[in-house]
Amino acid sequence: MNYPILNISEASWAGRDPSDFILFDNFVFTKDESFYENYLVGKIFCDCNGELFEFEKRILPKERWRYLLGFLPGVFKVELIFGPTMRKRIKLDELKNYLVNRIGELENSEFNIKWIEFIKNGKSFDELIAGSLSD
User: Fold this and answer.
1) Beta strand 5-7 with 44-46: parallel, antiparallel or unpaired?
2) What pTM does this model have?
3) Domain residue spans in the chain?
């Protein structure tokens, strides 16, 4: 799995922050059950190689001190485990269409217009998800 990964299960981004749908590594720092239910359980993620993964489980911290000091930012570290899906890959054009449709639901702004143009011209999964320019 090549991070970052993008949640491609959301039917709409309207009224939401697009950064909520991207994970930069396999760790999160929250005990909040609604986070797992809303953003991970039953969701499909695309990595920077175009491979698809599904959230399987989380591994809670083993150290007692992480629970005791869990109210401090960055202390309650949970590992996320992903597994393969029935469909192994997504086509680049499918991801482009998904992103253009989701961005199109957001508030109309000059930034979003440029973002859509960037997506349409993208040449790799890494470029679309991480914003990195391909060689």
Assistant:
1) antiparallel
2) 0.87
3) 5-130
